[in-house]
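Cross-posted from the bioinformatics board.
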Amino acid sequence: SAVISQKPSRDICQRGTSLTIQCQVDSQVTMMFWYRQQPGQSLTLIATANQGSEATYESGFVIDKFPISRPNLTFSTLTVSNMSPEDSSIYLCSQKGGGENRDRSSYEQYFGPGTRLTVT
Amino acid sequence: AQSVTQLDSHVSVSEGTPVLLRCNYSSSYSPSLFWYVQHPNKGLQLLLKYTSAATLVKGINGFEAEFKKSETSFHLTKPSAHMSDAAEYFCVVREPNFGNEKLTFGTGTRLTIIP
């Protein structure tokens, strides 16, 4: 298991502004992940955040809109920039389970509690 | 490419009766499969996982799932539903490519328990 915290837990923001979400994990991990869950929808991967390199973005997501930082092995931030009501979602971070020496095919991911963002 | 289909968006069962949540997957390789549960206003919790060992996988809270390669299915079951099982359930697939850790989520099944 893993202990993952996110700040803030929720926020209401005005359109055109930006919000930075913080994610802290309790063990050192190379990979962290950011997901979006739009209202009533499933989870979609935004990007993979590797420590020491640029984040890798999935199709449909760009760095200008969702800049990510990964300053060390236990922390990451996701910024939602120039927000619009369509950005209203739950944003979740996750880490890969197990250790670096485990069979990689068995890796699950553990998720933070999420940040519920409402853009007005 | 990997994908997963949850056949029912909503399932309702009476308390004490069996639960069946259906999931079919598509993968070019032998995938890893997971079930996650999301309670209202809570984070995602891992229920169980399949990673090419035993095809019948037992998870937490009395849930289990059986991997059937011939049917490309990974259905989630529980013998007797409890009120606390009411939640959203996600079937998830991951292909075992080193460096590709992407999870693909199904659209979810909302489980309602009738008292």
